[in-house]
Design a protein that fits this description.
Elements (H helix, E strand, L loop, with lengths): L1 H119 L5 H8 L3 H146 L3 H47 L8 E2 L5 E2 L24 H9 L11 E2 L3 E2 L1 H10 L9 H4 L4 E3 L9 E4 L2 E7 L2 E7 L3 E5 L7 E6 L2
Antiparallel strand pairs: 1-2, 3-4, 5-10, 6-7, 6-10, 7-8, 8-9
Helix pairs in contact: 1-3
């Protein structure tokens, strides 16, 4: 009878588990979908981080290009000022040349008039006439000396004006050449400004694309987050329904079990009463009744003992399984044979910081450690006079621009100069032009040269003249003089 009640209870519990199995299956599916959605959300956030990093990189590049563009525009303005000054110098030399030519012409005409007067008054006999007209020897010598001085004055004046004309002409040619160099530099800087502006526009367009991609990714992240919230709400609802169904099934199983137990008790009572009535009617022998009762008792004891043994065996097996599981867990976090600790996922736990700092590559690019005097720098730079000028180049033989030339020359003596002329204006130690020494940097607006001494410089001038020597370091506005330190 007891076995019958247990079987009925198990059947009711199995029925209840089948009722909630469909809900649990849908709940598991939702949890898997939620995990997939969470992975997509994490990937989207990672993409947003990458886009923000790319945008920041682009903004840094835009800022650097803007700074370069500003420096180029300042250099262009400085060159325009220098060109204007050269135009003024050229006009001044033209005016001086005209004055010298006019003075020379006037002096020449005056000399011709004096010579013509002498010849008209006596020609070849002018000296004889002067001697006859003289009152005495002293008067004669005075007149002769005066005439000689007049000739000498005319000759010196003509030579002076001729030299002045030559000097002014040479100065005018020099100014014109320097103006042409400045105009060539201005043209190159204008081309560079256009190139920089093109790069800035491209970077800004890429940054705008990043903004669009970030906005779209943020929209997708919002949708994923909302979907996760919906999935979680549905999971919680299914879980609540499952718990309620399990509770209802359990309650029904208990009610059914109680009813079955009550029915079994009633049937047992009826059977007992019937048996008792039968015993009374048949008047069994008392001994027979006692033997039957003992057999029934013994059968009951054997059955109960067997049940206890099975329970003990089951408990022993469960205990053994638990011990094996604990042992396996302990082994998963124990030290491996090589002494390295691992976590439960097999990852190495570097609790002792086993990374050797000496294994980290801390080497940097080597540079020449040699040093030299300013004259050594100048002597080295002069080897490359006549080599070509190349915009953006740094080769002393195949071509370099002004800052590439100075950078490469100073590098041979262990100095690390910045790449551009406007960066080199802040390198080293500033000194005045009056204190400039050979080997110092002479910095102009958008240009840089090496000072040779005696007012001379050596520099990568322009694409027409290449690397050359200029005899006037002040041919344009000097912004700074920098000495290696």
């Amino acid at each position: 009878m007891k076995k019958r009640i247990v079987c009925m209870t198990l059947a009711l519990m199995m029925t209840a588990s089948q009722v909630v199995s469909v809900s649990a299956s849908r709940e598991d599916e939702l949890r898997e979908e939620q995990a997939a959605t969470s992975a997509q959300l994490d990937a989207t956030y990672a993409q947003i981080d990458q886009l923000y990093s790319a945008k920041q990189q682009l903004q840094s590049e835009i800022d650097a290009l803007d700074a370069n563009l500003v420096n180029v525009m300042v250099s262009i303005q400085t060159l325009e000022g220098d060109i204007s000054n050269k135009e003024t110098d050229i006009q001044n030399t033209q005016t001086a040349l005209e004055k010298a030519q006019n003075a020379k012409a006037k002096q020449y005409e005056a000399m011709k008039e004096r010579i013509q007067y002498i010849y008209e008054k006596g020609g070849n006999a002018a000296w004889f006439q002067m001697m006859m007209d003289a009152d005495n020897l002293s008067d004669l010598l005075t007149k002769a000396e005066y005439t000689q001085k007049m000739y000498e004055y005319d000759r010196q004046s003509l030579e002076k004006y001729a030299n002045t004309i030559d000097q002014v002409t040479q100065l005018g040619d020099q100014y014109k050449q320097e103006k042409a160099e400045l105009e060539g530099m201005k043209q190159e800087y204008e081309s560079e400004s256009v190139n920089l502006q093109t790069q800035i526009d491209t970077k800004k367009a890429n940054s705008a694309d990043c903004d669009n991609e970030i906005a779209y990714a943020q929209q997708m992240a919002t949708e994923y987050s909302n979907l996760i919230v919906q999935q979680q709400a549905e999971i919680e609802q299914l879980e609540a329904e499952r718990i309620a169904a399990e509770e209802e099934a359990r309650r029904q199983a208990e009610a059914e079990a109680a009813a079955a137990a009550e029915e079994a008790a009633r049937q047992a009572a009826e059977e007992e009463a019937a048996q008792e009535q039968e015993n009374q009617e048949n008047q069994y022998d008392e001994n027979t009744d006692e033997e039957d009762q003992e057999e029934i008792s013994e059968d009951g004891e054997h059955t109960e003992d067997d049940g206890c043994t099975e329970d003990e065996d089951s408990d022993s097996e469960d205990s053994s399984d638990d011990e094996n599981t604990d042992s396996s867990d302990d082994e998963s976090t124990s030290d491996s044979s090589d002494g390295v600790k691992h976590d439960e996922y097999g990852n190495v736990i570097d609790s002792d910081n086993t990374v050797n700092p000496e294994d980290v590559d801390t080497s940097s690019s080597s540079s020449s450690s040699s040093s030299g005097s300013g004259s050594s720098i100048v002597d080295y730079a002069l080897q490359f006079v006549g080599n070509p000028y190349v915009w953006g180049g740094t080769s002393l033989t195949n071509g370099a621009d002004c800052s590439g030339f100075t950078q490469s020359v100073y590098a041979q003596f262990g100095y690390s100069l910045p790449r551009t002329s406007y960066e080199q204006q802040n390198w080293g130690t500033e000194v005045s032009y009056a204190d400039a020494q050979p080997g110092d940097l002479i910095c102009y607006g958008g240009h840089v040269a090496i000072y040779m001494g005696n007012g001379q410089i050596v520099h990568a001038s322009n694409s027409q003249d290449g690397i050359k020597i200029s005899n006037d370091a002040t041919y344009r506005t000097i912004l700074s003089v920098r000495r290696p330190s």
